[in-house]
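quick one before i forget lol
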Amino acid sequence: MEVTSVNIKVVANEIPVVAYVSIVIDESFAVRKIRILYKNESYTVHMPSMKSKDGRYSDVCHPINSKAREKIETAVLNAYLGQLKSKAV
């Protein structure tokens, strides 16, 4: 499994959300509305979720194993941090 595309939309007024991300996996499967949050001086990647009738949130889709999660998180965070760096220059 490889993340073959990452598109990032940086947001400024939705703290702690700093960006929304869409990815494509193996040029075959798209995942939208992944969120990057900045809390406690670190970034975390959160999969798309829906609110149930009882008010709890659950992931719409998510990696099945830690290797897949790591690949997605690495690709998303590297793309986001690279975008931040290019805007700072």
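fyi The chain has one helix and six strands.
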